[in-house]
Design goal:
Length: 142
């Protein structure tokens, strides 16, 4: 993972990166359990058994869990200096002792629905629109 600005615009966090080219990851293969940018995912999952693999898409710059570094962070622990965790790691680390009383806040969802990702793919092929531009348009910030 690479260091990136957190969802609040100030906090530094780990951003998910492609395991092949080290660029920003946009997909996690549910079967391989690896992170990929779009071009590496398409190249490696174009044929054979991998073509049938399921995947989860997320926004560029999605924060990584500080513990496992392989999942999109979904929670910020207010008592751990706002460290970002996936829900599984937060539960594992906060089930005993003083951490049991820690307070967490949900992060904005970085995971994209498959339908939205298909729209992004169509726009990218048609006119070269990048995913973040589609998301800004969708959210009314462009």
């Amino acid at each position: 993972p690479q260091v990136a600005v957190g969802p609040d615009g100030v906090t530094k966090c780990l951003a998910l990166v492609c395991g092949q080219c080290k660029g920003p990851a946009l997909r996690r293969c549910d079967d391989c359990a690896d992170m990929y940018c779009l071009s590496c995912f398409r190249r490696l999952h174009a044929r054979g058994r991998r073509k049938e693999h399921t995947w989860t898409a997320f926004q560029p710059g999605a924060p990584a869990c500080v513990e496992c570094e392989g999942q999109v962070a979904t929670l910020s622990c207010l008592d751990c200096d706002n460290d970002l965790f996936c829900s599984a790691c937060f539960q594992k680390l906060h089930k005993k002792g003083h951490r049991r009383d820690h307070t967490s806040e949900p992060l904005p969802s970085y995971v994209l629905k498959h339908g939205l990702w298909q729209v992004i793919d169509v726009l990218r092929r048609r006119d070269g629109t990048e995913p973040d531009a589609v998301l800004r348009r969708r959210n009314g910030t462009e």
